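Notebook entry, structure prediction.
Reason for the run: the old model in the group folder had no record of what sequence produced it. Starting over properly, with the input documented here first.
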Amino acid sequence: YMDSLFNPSRGSSLSARLKLLTGLWLIAALAAISFTLALAWRLEGAGAAINETGRLRTHVYRLAYLVKQQPNSNAVKMETAAFEQSMHNIAEGDPKRPLFLPNDPDVHDKMQLIMQFWYDTMKPMLLNGPTPAQEQLQQFADILNNFAYSLETVDAHNIDWLRRFQMALLVMIVTSAAIMMILLYSWVIRPINLLRNGVQAIRRGEFGAQVATDTAAEFAQLAQGFNRMSSHLKTLYTDLEKQVSQKTQSLANKNRELETLYETTRNLHRSRSTSEAASDFLQHIIQE
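New structure, fully documented this time:
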């Protein structure tokens, strides 16, 4: 079926070709749009996770300051709850924003490390234990920085894929436009030009001129109808010539008969005998 579709000599239907091409283009467009939306969704979710990770670092430094200034205060507890809320938002995700972690094992492992270090080390120190040392704060900040770097790496990878796919879309659009121009000429413009040339040939008096029928079914039907009409015109023109020749010959015969009758009548009106008039009439008939 595909061979008959793209091979003009098979005479497949033009409407079927257009429907199939439209369907293929629609499928390709939907796939491209879906892939682009998926990449954009991933980029948006990873970007929100990166922003939320920045908030985590802000909460950590604020907690360290509050613990030094107001140990075991409500402000410390509120800031601790805010940190945990942000941390769980990153880990669990929020489709409404959207916010979610990319499907990367390294990112998820670092997220687990953040949660483990927070619950095992940082939170007990901030709420119950001694003030966290600078080394512990820096260690936790480094864990957060590594996590943010992993998110940015995955995000940059998705951006790179998005750019590649956009370039592929550009190439596909240019290529499909060129293919459509070629197919438009082969399926529509060429058959119309053939029919126009046939009409011009008929106009020049070239009755019986034929056009090619190796096109789409619709144009093939038109071409076949034109060929039958041209052949019929040639037949009519040939018969007309024969009829004109026959009519001319018949008219010439009648003219000769009238001329003979006229001569006979003229001879009869002359003052001559009947035998002489009959003799002249027979002589005139014999000469013809």
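Summary: The mean pLDDT is 79.
The old model has been moved to the deprecated folder.
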